[in-house]
Design goal:
The protein has helices at 2-127, 129-139, 143-260, and strands at residues 285-288, 291-293, 296-298, 301-304, 310-312, 317-325, 329-338, 341-350, 358-360, 365-368, 380-386, 396-397. With 403 residues, the protein is of the alpha+beta class. The strands form three sheets. Strands 1, 4, 6, 7, 8, 9, 11 and 12 form an eight-stranded antiparallel β-sheet that branches. It has a two-stranded antiparallel sheet with strand order 2-3. Strands 5-10 form a two-stranded antiparallel sheet. Helix 1 (2-127) packs antiparallel against helix 3 (143-260) and helix 2 packs across helix 3. It is rod-shaped. The relative contact order is 0.10.
């Protein structure tokens, strides 16, 4: 009787224990899935914000391109005006040169005429005006000859006077033209200075627009990178959700198989082993630990060793991403369900990747240690995240504390 009661109590106790474990794991699973959903919602919000920033950037670029086009047209028109002004200035200079040559010729004629007239005046002054006429009278054959000589002298004097006046008028006319042309040249030169100043301002504005455009393009590039990063994170979160659900089913199956088997857990496929939550994924020394360093937070550990060094899965799990990235190089992300808790491991800078998806077992070969991506020297950058992976790496923990 006592034996029956004891058996009944034991059965109830085991059943209650099993229910408690199941309920506990279910709660943990629900919390992990809830965490993934929350991260996905946050990621969707970041994606919308990122797209909004990209749209604003494109609007700014479009507006700036229209302004640049306007300035291009204005600069071209200004350059054409400058070319025309340069041609006008050249033509005006040629006209001035021609006028100066004409003035020189006229001035020479005037000077020669002035010299001749001075000589005549001096001759008349030295001989005296009356004597000159007396000589004309005495030298005349008759009165008629006298009149002819007087008329001839008067005509020569009048012609000289008229010629001199005409020459002076010509000189005044040429000088007036010269002054007019020089004024025109001065105005053109001033206009040229104004245009050159405007051209300089326009080119300075264009340089500023080019700088702004380059800045916007650089910003756009960074926004695209950020958008890609967010998109990549979203894809990983989705894959993690699917992997976690699959891992739940596989973990339950493994636990059932373990209970039904007589032995312990199966040995790992690789030579690297450990007694903790996970195994050390590669042989070698830890050259850089988890935590802050001069370049910022290091969310994982670096394991380095020369030669061909295989890398193994740190625990049973599902490959959620296997890719090449500019930062991580060849990298593999694996989602794990251990004791109802979701974990994520990251294996970066590998020389090669032997897996592309699907489930993997603890100790399964993933690839070889390498130096790809932003890496200096052959090593494995290994990350452990308690929960789903995210770009901010807020779930990262020190892997060395778990193997």
């Amino acid at each position: 009787m006592k034996s029956k009661v004891f058996g009944t109590v034991l059965s109830l106790s085991l059943a209650l224990s099993a229910f408690t474990v199941y309920h506990s794991e279910s709660v943990v699973h629900a919390e992990s899935l809830s965490s993934i959903k929350k991260k996905q919602q946050e990621n969707e919000k970041k994606a919308k914000d990122s797209q909004s920033k990209l749209d604003e950037n494109k609007k700014s670029q479009a507006s700036l391109e229209a302004e640049v086009e306007r300035l291009d047209k204005l600069t071209t028109a200004t350059d054409e005006k400058i070319i025309q002004k340069q041609a006008d200035i050249k033509e005006t200079k040629e006209e001035i040169a021609q006028l100066k040559a004409e003035i020189t010729v006229v001035q020479k004629r005037i000077d020669e005429r002035d010299k001749l007239l001075k000589e005549r005046v001096n001759s008349m002054y030295e001989s005296g005006g009356a004597v000159s006429y007396l000589e004309v009278v005495l030298g005349s054959k008759d009165f008629g000859d006298f009149l002819d000589r007087v008329l001839a002298l008067n005509m020569i004097a009048e012609q000289d006077r008229q010629l001199l006046e005409e020459q002076k008028k010509d000189k005044e006319l040429l000088e007036t033209k010269m002054a007019s042309v020089e004024k025109k040249l001065s105005n053109l030169q001033n206009a040229m200075k104004d245009l050159q100043k405007l051209q300089k301002q326009l080119r300075a504005q264009m340089a500023e627009k080019d700088r702004l455009m380059a800045s916007l393009q650089s910003e756009e590039e960074e926004l695209h990178k950020e958008a890609h990063k967010i998109e990549n994170e979203g894809a990983i979160l989705k894959a993690q959700e699917e992997a976690f659900r699959a891992e739940q089913a596989r973990a339950a199956a493994r636990e059932k198989a373990r209970k039904s088997s007589s032995g312990g857990s199966a040995p790992s496929m690789g030579p690297v082993s450990g007694n903790g939550l996970i195994i050390k994924p590669a042989a070698g020394a830890v050259t850089s630990g988890f935590g802050m360093r001069s370049s910022g937070m290091h969310e994982g550990i670096d394991i380095a060793q020369g030669g061909t060094v295989p890398i193994y899965a740190a625990a049973d799990g599902t490959v959620i991403k296997s890719e090449y990235s500019s930062s991580y190089g060849n990298v593999v992300y694996i989602s794990h369900s251990i004791g109802g808790q979701q974990w994520t491991t990251v294996y970066a800078h590998m020389s090669s990747r032997a897996v592309s998806g699907g489930s993997v077992s603890k100790g399964q070969f993933l690839g070889n240690m390498g130096n790809t991506g932003r890496s200096s020297g052959q090593h494995l950058h290994f990350e452990l995240h308690k929960g789903p992976w995210n770009a901010g790496k807020t779930n990262a923990v020190n892997p060395a504390a778990y193997w």
